[in-house]
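Thread: Modeling a multi-component assembly for a lab meeting

Hi all, long-time lurker, first post. My supervisor asked me to bring a structural picture of a complex we are working on to next week's group meeting, and I have zero experience with this. I have the sequence lines for every component (386 residues in total). Could someone generate the structure of the whole assembly? Inputs are pasted exactly as I received them:
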Amino acid sequence: MSSEVSRRSIGARPNPDAADAILDAAASLLQRKGLRGLTTDAIAREARASKTTLYRWWPNRGALLLALYVRRKGSSVHEDTGSLIQDVARTYERVFRTWQNEGQLFSLIIAEAQHDDGVAEALVAFRKERVDDWLPVLRRAEERSELVDGADLEALAESIVAHAWFYLITRRLGSDPAILAARVIGPWLRKNR
Amino acid sequence: MSSEVSRRSIGARPNPDAADAILDAAASLLQRKGLRGLTTDAIAREARASKTTLYRWWPNRGALLLALYVRRKGSSVHEDTGSLIQDVARTYERVFRTWQNEGQLFSLIIAEAQHDDGVAEALVAFRKERVDDWLPVLRRAEERSELVDGADLEALAESIVAHAWFYLITRRLGSDPAILAARVIGPWLRKNR
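Re: Modeling a multi-component assembly
Sure thing. I ran the full set together rather than chain by chain. Output:
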C-alpha cells in the first residue's frame, strides 16, 4: 500500500516522477548535510524544481520528511495471519527493523516535531493515518471473535501505534516484537477473559 | 515525592543546596540561551562549580536536564482515589498541565534523546522510574479486585506511560484526561468483562 499511502498522505497529483526526483534530491541532501541542511530552498535548488512545485506536493518540510520516510520504509500493509497478535507482532518486527536500519529518520522526525510546527503538523496527520490503517485489521479480528465485546477499536489501534513509537523514542527496538504484541493486545482478547 | 524521586534519580549525596544552586544556574542558562547553550562547561561556569561536581551529581547532560524537569514539575505522587481510572485520570490531568506550562522542557528532552546518547540514557532510566512508580498504584487496584485476573501490571504501567508520552509528542495535550484514562485502563478492568 506504499503508493496508496503516499497518494493519501501527499495528495493525488500528476507526474509522480517529478515527486520522486524531488524526494531523490531531498534524500541526497539529507545524506550529505543532515537534517539541518534539508531546507525547502536547498531541496528546490538540488532538484531544479520551483518552491511552488514543492509546496504543491508537500505543504511543509515535515510533510516532505514523512514522504521520504514512507518511501524508504516501503509497504506498510499489515499482514493477515488470521491472528491479531501475530499481525501486530509481524508489523512490530518489520517496523523495528526499518527503524534500526534507515538511519533514524523517523526518530529525527519525532525530534524535529518537538520544536518545528510544520513537522509537528505532518506528524500529527501521520499518526492519524497509522491509527486508521489498523482499523480494518482490528475489524477482521472482531469478526473472528478474537476481541472482547464492545472493544473500542480506535483505542486499541492507538495503543498499538503508541507502544511502537514509545519503544522507538526510548531506544528499545531490540525488544522481542512478539512479546510486545502480546503485552499490548493481551487484555483486549476474549480468550484471556 | 519530589525529593524522593530526585534522590533516587540522581543518587543520594551530601549537600543538596549545592545541587539546587547548579540546577538554578542550569535553569537560568536554559531560559537565556536555550537548550544548545546548556553545556556542562557553561553550567559549571554559571554555577561557579567544578565540572567534577556536576558529573558527580549527574553523569551526563541528559540526567541534569531530567533533574531540572523533575524539580520544575514538582511532586509526581499518584493519587489514591480508590479507583484506578480516577488515579490515572488525575495524573494525566496534572502531567498534561505541566507539559503545557513549563515550556516544553520534557518534549525537548525527548527530542534531544533522539540524537544525544547521554540524554537518551537518562531518558531510558527515567522511563523505567515512571513505569515502576505505577506498580504500587496497580497493586492497590488489584487488591480492590478492579483488574482482570493475572493482569500483567508491568505491561499496564508501561501502557499508561506510553500513552502519556505519545500524546505529548503528537501534541494532543488538550485531550480530556478522563477519556484517555478510560481508554487506556478500560480493557484491564474486571467489571468490563
